[in-house]
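Structure in, sequence out. Go:
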C-alpha cells in the first residue's frame, strides 16, 4: 500500500510501538484518520485517531478528559491531527484496561462488561496475528489484513 510505510514511520516518530501499528492497521487501510468523522458515531461510541478508539474508553483513561461526559466527544477529534496525542491516549487506555481493552475497543461498555465473547476473542486473535506479522515490516508499505466481520 503506497504511503503506508510513511504513516507507520510517522506514528513511530510520535512514540508508537508495534502494538499501536497493529491496531491502526486493523482499522484503516493506510493507518490514517481519513475516515468518516467519528466513524459515523457519536457519544461514547465516537471513534477518533488511527486506531479508532472510542470516546467512552478515552474519557476514562486520559486524565485531561476525565471530567467530560458522553456528549463531549468532539474533544477527542484532536487525535485525528495530533499523532503524539493519538499514541498517548492509546497507551493510556491499553495500560488502564489491560486485556479488557480488546473487549471495550471492539464492543464499548458491553465488551468491557463481557470481554470473553467469541467475537472479541476473534478480534483479539486477528490483532495478535497482525502484531506478529508486522515484525520486520514496521517501516515498509506492506499491509496485513484480517477479515473481522462488523458487529
Amino acid at each position: 500500500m503506497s504511503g503506508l510505510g510513511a504513516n507507520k514511520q510517522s506514528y513511530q516518530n510520535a512514540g508508537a510501538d508495534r502494538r499501536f501499528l497493529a491496531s491502526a492497521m486493523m482499522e484503516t487501510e493506510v493507518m490514517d484518520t481519513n475516515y468518516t468523522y467519528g466513524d459515523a458515531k457519536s457519544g461514547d461510541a465516537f471513534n477518533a485517531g488511527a486506531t479508532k478508539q472510542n470516546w467512552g474508553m478515552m474519557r476514562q483513561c486520559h486524565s485531561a478528559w476525565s471530567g467530560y461526559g458522553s456528549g463531549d466527544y468532539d474533544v477527542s477529534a484532536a487525535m485525528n491531527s495530533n499523532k503524539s496525542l493519538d499514541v498517548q491516549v492509546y497507551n493510556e487506555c491499553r495500560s488502564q484496561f489491560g486485556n479488557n481493552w480488546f473487549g471495550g475497543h471492539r464492543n464499548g461498555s458491553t465488551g468491557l462488561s463481557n470481554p470473553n465473547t467469541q467475537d472479541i476473542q476473534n478480534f483479539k486473535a486477528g490483532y495478535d496475528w497482525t502484531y506478529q506479522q508486522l515484525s520486520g515490516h514496521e517501516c515498509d508499505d506492506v499491509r496485513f489484513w484480517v477479515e473481522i466481520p462488523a458487529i
